[in-house]
Every structure is written in structure tokens, then in C-alpha cells.
Amino acid sequence: MSMLIAAFVCIALLAISVSHFVWGVGLSWPLKNRKLLAQTVVGFTGVEKMPNPLLTLAVAIGTFYAAFIALAMADHDGGGTNLNLVGGVIAVIFLARGIVGYTPKWQAITAEPIFRFNDKRVYSPLCLFIGLGFLSLILLRLI
To answer: What is the mean pLDDT of each run of 10 residues along the chain (143 residues)?
Structure first.
């Protein structure tokens, strides 16, 4: 069961990582321009451009790292407490982002309509899924 959960979490994180890498090197895939991309994936009211490419690449690296932590956590015998702690931190980060996505304050500051649509249906639920996946992996390692 751990390997199945880890595989799904890893696939989701790798997709996020690849997307951020592509955006970090300056492409607007899968959209036609950078302004529309910023409105779709950043979503802050009045956003005109993507964040600093270094920040975007940092997200790509962080999610890539998290993907492999998920796979490592599927091994019940390896990593010990330190791996559980790293997985716990990752879980908290993703759960927090998932929960924040449903708060009125977040909805007010990320008012771009395309982002609001995607956040409600994809971004926040995906963050909750990833966070719960890491929590599940921790629990399965402890029992």
C-alpha cells in the first residue's frame, strides 16, 4: 500500500516540478503567453508577470526533492525518524497550502478568475492530496 501511495504522490510532485522548471526557464507552456500564465498559476489580483525565475526554479527543485522523499518513505526499514520528520514537514507545507486555498482572505488576494477556477478544482485539492499522502506514508511507516 505504501508504494502505491508514494507512486501517486511522486507522480503529482514530478508533474508540478516539471511545470515549474519549464516556467523557470522562461517558457509559457501550456499557455500562449507569460501574462496569461501568471494569471492562471499565480493568480494575485492584477498580476502581469511570472515571479522571479529563480523562485520558480526553487519550487521545481523543492517539489523534485519531495517526490523522491515520498518514494523513500515507501521503504519501511530505511531512513528512520529523520525521514519521518522530513515527510512531516512536507505534509504540513502541502496541507497548509491546501487549506489556505479555501479561506476568504486567500480568495480575495488571488482574485484572477482563471486562478480562482483552477485553485478551487485543482491546486488546493492537489495540495491536500499530497499532504495527506505524506501523512499516510508516515503512519504506515509507524505501524
So the answer is: 97 98 96 95 96 98 98 87 96 98 97 97 98 97 90
56 neighbors 130 (Cβ within 8 angstroms): no
Classify residue 87 as exposed, middle or buried by CB count within 10 Å of its CB (0-12, 13-18, 19+).
buried
pTM: 0.94
Give the number of other Cβ atoms within 10 Å of residue 133's Cβ: 24
Instruction: Measure the CA–CA gap between 6 and 134, rounded to whole angstroms.
Output: 8
Domain that holds residue 53: 2-142
Total count of domains within the chain: 1
